[in-house]
Design brief:
This protein has 13 helices and 13 strands. The protein is an alpha/beta fold. Its cofactor is pyridoxal 5'-phosphate.
């Protein structure tokens, strides 16, 4: 027997999520992880670094509740939205018995977290219009505990249709939780579904400071849900999930000044995104530009592998999604500032 044989079967068979950093790459323009292009300074008070942090820092909870427009008891802060996904699965799904439902192509951590926890996965692919297949999802509600929907969807950029979501929430009442991942919602805040929390206790919304707040490095995410859901998740979360420096930075980012900076950043990136799309539309190597509601644009090329290789040679690191269902020859481009977008377009113009 080897040490590997001692591990759970599910772990031995698991292929880990291929994050941007795990994949790696050589280059000087990093546009593969949907990160903000610049870091911003924060001041940390070290006075309490010798003490264990609060499990749920009150200042962070209050600030995010005010920002999201919900009550404090409807907020849980975690180590990124990734921990929130796993917490939901660990809290509501019995290993070896229950299942979650996902709508590929979508964010990969829903499936990875389920597999890690020994929970089954039901796949209902997006429709040709890249919307959830609402009738099929509703027909599978008796089989699943959690339905994960990403809006804007990573990697396609599409929003979940509100009418279909409303009908699904009604159908899933007392049967399943519907989780809407709003990691990119700051880039289209009018599309948030947080207001539906007041009507549907089976709705859960996950959020993050990684994208529009430019804080991917501190790993800080949020779950917004009915107080009963938050109370259950609080039983499962680690006793000290948020380090004190993270809490300090998060509170500063959620201050009036921090929110203003975030909104300015979003306006700038949305402007660069519109400019990039206009440039892409004029290029002969581009065959399709997908929806653009996040801080990225998914593009289908006539030869995606050739484009990806040309970018790599130029030191520009993008994310290849051509192996995902329905996304052949598709490459995702994180929206950066003007110089980075110009570098991408210049390479594409030279492709014949």
């Amino acid at each position: 027997m080897s040490i590997k044989d001692l591990a759970r079967r599910a772990v031995r068979a698991l292929t880990p999520y291929q994050s941007a950093r795990r994949i790696g790459g050589q280059g000087n323009v990093w546009l593969n992880a949907n990160e903000a292009p610049l870091a911003y300074p924060f001041i940390i008070d070290p006075a309490r670094l010798n003490r264990y942090p609060e499990c749920q820092p009150p200042a962070v909870i209050a600030a995010y509740a005010a920002y999201a427009g919900v009550a404090d008891e409807q907020v849980l802060v975690s180590r990124g939205a990734d921990e929130a996904i796993e917490l939901l699965i660990r809290t509501f799904c019995e290993a070896g018995q229950d299942q979650i439902l996902i709508c590929p192509p979508t964010y990969g951590m829903y499936a990875i977290s389920a597999e890690t926890c020994g929970v089954g996965i039901v796949e209902v692919p997006l429709t040709a219009a890249r919307q959830p297949d609402w009738p099929e999802i509703k027909s599978r509600l008796s089989d699943v505990k959690l339905v994960f929907l990403c809006s804007p969807n990573n990697p396609t950029g599409d929003l979940v249709g509100r009418e279909g979501l409303n009908e699904l929430l009604e159908a899933a009442s007392d049967r399943a939780l519907i989780v809407v991942d709003e990691a990119y919602i700051e880039f289209c805040p009018e599309a948030s579904v947080v207001d539906l929390l007041a009507r549907f206790p089976n709705l859960v919304v996950t959020r993050t400071l990684s994208k529009a707040f430019a804080l991917a490095g501190i790993r800080c995410g949020f779950t917004l849900a009915a107080g009963e859901v938050i109370a259950l998740l609080s039983k499962v979360i680690a006793p000290y999930p948020i380090p004190d420096p993270v809490a300090q930075i998060a509170a500063e980012a959620l201050s009036a000044k921090g929110l203003t900076l975030m909104q300015e950043r979003v306006r700038e990136l949305n402007a660069q995104k519109a400019r990039l799309k206009a440039e892409l539309a004029a290029l002969p190597c581009v065959t399709e530009i997908f929806e653009d509601k996040g801080n990225f644009v998914l593009v289908r090329f006539d030869d995606g592998a050739r484009v990806f290789a040309a970018m790599k040679e130029a030191g520009i690191i993008l994310r290849d999604f051509s192996s995902k269902p329905g996304l052949n020859d598709s490459v995702r481009i994180t929206v950066g500032y003007r110089g980075e977008m110009d570098a991408v377009v210049n390479v594409l113009r030279d492709i014949r």
